[in-house]
Amino acid sequence: MSLIADHKIAQTGAEILPVLAERWSPRAYTNDPIDEAKLAAALEAARWSPSAGNSQPARFIVARRGSAAFEKVAESLMGFNKAWAPQASVLLVGLYTELLDGEGKPRATPLYDLGQAMSHLSVQAHHDGLHVHQMTGFVADQLAAAFELPADVTPFVVAAVGTVGSADDLDEVLAERERQPRTRRAIDEIVLVNE
Asked: Record's family (predicted)?
């Protein structure tokens, strides 16, 4: 039996890989410990993601539920993210390092490269049966202070990682959101020129 409810499978206008059509960001997670081999594969996929000039600016904090690191990340969450995200097996922080070009000026690509790494991580995780929900609702300065990060390392995203759970375990508002079908803008809204 698939863990992916039919209403969560993307209704695409062109055929795409099943791992992409089925990937979604749940808020309900089981309390199972993380499968370490699957987590390692997701991090390996992130490691092998493309980056400008092979600069590899992506960095990660991997915090397993029950650890001091997990508590630090959970403490930094804002709003309703505090209600659901700590149920995941792992809270993973995506960070990027500031890189300088040949003239000593900051390069423009580290944030883009982190996005590539997070994308690869989430697709590999989904392929292996894990789910990833990325969020920016956290206090970055608090997180940086909690982990005593160097000034040139910036936390940008926190991701809940684990095995998808039941919407019935969420409060009413979050459960309703969890049960909604996935939607996206039409292709002609996002492709600005298509000659």
From this structure: Belongs to the nitroreductase family.
pLDDT tens for residues 139-186? 999 999 999 999 999 999 999 999 998 888 888 888 888 888 888 898
Query: CA-CA distance, 154 to 138, in Å (whole number)?
Result: 13
What is d(CA 80, CA 173) in angstroms, rounded to the nearest whole number? Answer: 10
Per residue in 85-122, pLDDT (tens digit) is 999 999 999 999 998 888 888 889 999 999 999 999 99
CB 153 within 8 A of CB 95: yes
Q: What residue ranges define each of the domains in the chain, with the CATH number in brackets?
A: 6-180 (3.40.109.10)
pTM of the model: 0.90
CA pair distance 92, 83, nearest whole angstrom: 17
Q: What does the alpha-carbon distance between residue 123 and residue 132 come to, in Å, rounded to a whole number?
A: 9
